[in-house]
Design brief:
The chain is an alpha/beta fold. It has 3 domains: 3-195, P-loop containing nucleotide triphosphate hydrolases (Rossmann fold, 3-Layer(aba) Sandwich), CATH 3.40.50.300; 203-401, 3-Layer(aba) Sandwich (Rossmann fold), CATH 3.40.50.300; 406-506, Winged helix-like DNA-binding domain superfamily/Winged helix DNA-binding domain (Arc Repressor Mutant, subunit A, Orthogonal Bundle). The chain is built from 20 helices and 17 strands. The strands form 4 sheets. Strands 3-4-2-5-6-1-7 form a 7-stranded parallel β-sheet, sandwiched between helices. The chain has a 6-stranded parallel β-sheet with strand order 8-13-12-9-11-10, with helices on both faces. The protein is globular.
């Protein structure tokens, strides 16, 4: 069968989505590809169609056991021979899978990256024809990615063990240029890059700073009572706490997190996707590869990165109809994020790598905080993070639709730059703001910061000055270090502030 016949026979589609056909043709031409396709872009078809057409086995490497189980189940339902290999299986079950591999009885084998160092696994795949190695969730390879996994460190060595190098395809929904470069270096593979737009024009974005997050959540749940709503929490404990709290108020709920057994997860997932339950309360482990239509996604608190946020919100409106994405947050929620950052200390990494990973995670978290607090267009904020240009007004986010007035803060912006120059860029947002508003705290006096010429030069509140600084960082006039105690830094654009006539910020 050709690619169109394969698409129709196994998957029931008459035509490919944008970019899918070019990616498939490239793989069939035995060229290595890296594909950054937004959530809902149809990544699986891009390696499954050529995998069916080429002679031999496609090995799909994925870090998520729940995802590989779902993918294998879906392939089998379509009459495609597929199996998985992971740590949840008994030794006898793993031997049976490897026997099928050696006898060329399957087309797709899903494995976890822990198998990179397994000699038995490597020997088995070297005894058969392997046509394609697919790296799913490829951002996990990079230390700069939002979900770095230690097991991926041996990927280059693993590819070197193969007696005959198959075509390598890598897929992720989110990757910055630094992540793309790191994946290429870690794999030691020259990829042809395919990259789709990250903008989802059918999605409405809103951020809600809340003093009562449950109350604001219930307002949204009641507003969308007839829709399928997906609510994301950061931790398992938060997920269960929210589930049981809402369950007492008779909401139609489902629950999903990685600590539940597979039977319970399948039960709740099936009830939600079949619309027997309206609301899914879940951690990020829910959502990979699901086909159901979700109309509303709500994030409770801060995801760990804009990549996580983009993936989770991208599960709304996969039918391209208008859908809605909200983030409800309170700054106290950062306690949970810091827990995950400090968990890096438990990873099997050397001291310098741990320090780097924690630094990257803090940087990515601050980008999410910037998204929550920015007055810019939220569509523009997201796509610019991934290197795309975007119009400055979208009519599809709370910032653009909000009736707000703007205030000229050019004097305060110049005071910020002057203060950084006078203090030799040694301080962060909090200290710089206190200097400008004339704080009488001992910490300011003890450092003689009340003696510099920018001290007490603004009548605005400290929170307003902090907002000015946040906007200056977002707009590129300042940089911020991403250490445990971040410091503001001047850059090549900082002096442009002196040449501007106005610096308007929404209020």
């Amino acid at each position: 069968m050709n690619k169109y016949e394969t698409l129709k026979y196994y998957f029931g589609y008459d035509k490919f989505r944008p970019m899918q056909e070019d990616i498939i043709d490239t793989i069939l031409n035995k060229e290595n590809v890296m594909c950054i396709l937004a959530t809902g872009g149809g990544k699986s078809l891009c390696f499954q169609v050529p995998g069916l057409m080429m002679e031999g086995l496609t090995i799909v490497i994925t870090p998520l056991i729940s995802l590989m189980c779902d993918q294998v189940k879906h392939l089998k339902e379509k009459g495609i021979s597929a199996m998985y290999l992971n740590s949840t299986q008994r030794y006898s079950e793993q031997l049976e899978v490897l026997k099928c591999v050696r006898n060329n009885k399957i087309k797709f084998l899903y494995v976890a990256p822990e198998k990179f160092n397994n000699r038995m696994f490597i020997d088995a795949i070297n005894d058969c024809v392997v046509s394609q190695i697919t790296l799913d969730e490829a951002h996990c390879i990079s230390v700069y990615g939002h979900d770095f996994r230690v097991d991926y460190a041996n990927i280059s060595k693993f590819l070197g063990f193969l007696s005959k190098r198959p075509v390598v395809s890598a897929f992720t929904a989110t990757a910055s240029q630094s992540v793309i470069n790191d994946i290429k270096e870690c794999c030691n593979v020259d990829f042809k890059i395919f990259k789709s737009t990250f903008d989802r024009p059918n999605l409405y974005y809103e951020t809600i700073q809340s003093n009562d997050e449950i109350k604001d959540l219930k307002i949204l749940l009641d507003k969308y009572s007839d829709e399928q709503v997906l609510v994301y929490c950061l931790t398992r404990r938060q997920t269960e706490s929210l589930y049981y709290r809402l369950d007492k108020e008779s909401y139609s709920l489902a629950l999903y997190h990685g600590g539940l057994d597979s039977q319970t997860k399948s039960y709740y997932q099936d009830f939600f996707l079949s619309k027997k339950k309206k609301i899914m309360i879940a951690t990020s482990s829910f959502g990979m590869g699901i086909d159901g239509v979700i109309r509303v996604v709500i994030n409770m608190g801060f995801p760990m990165s804009l990549e996580d946020l983009s993936q989770q919100q991208g599960r709304a409106g996969r039918d391209n109809k208008e859908s809605y994405c909200y983030m409800i947050y309170n700054m106290k929620d950062l306690y949970y994020n810091e827990y995950f950052i400090n968990a890096v200390d438990d990873l099997a990494l050397d001291k310098d790598t741990k320090k780097l990973v924690k630094k990257v995670k803090r940087e990515k978290l601050r980008e999410v905080i910037g998204y929550a607090q920015t007055k810019r267009c939220l569509h523009e904020y997201l796509v610019s993070h991934f290197g795309e240009l975007y119009m400055s007004y979208c009519c599809k986010c709370s910032n653009c639709n909000r009736n707000t007035k703007t205030i000229d803060y050019i004097k305060e912006a110049r005071l910020v730059v002057d203060t950084l120059k006078l203090t030799k860029e040694k301080y962060g947002t909090n200290i710089v703001s206190k200097i400008i508003v004339g704080s009488k705290e001992n910490s300011i006096k003890e450092k003689y910061l009340n003696k510099i010429k920018t001290y007490n030069k603004s009548y605005h509140s400290i929170n307003e000055i902090k907002n000015v600084i946040s906007n200056m960082v977002s707009d590129g006039y300042l940089d911020k270090t991403y250490d445990e105690y971040p410091v503001l830094k001047l850059n090549e654009n900082s002096d442009i502030i002196y040449r501007l006539e106005k610096y308007d910020i929404k209020k």
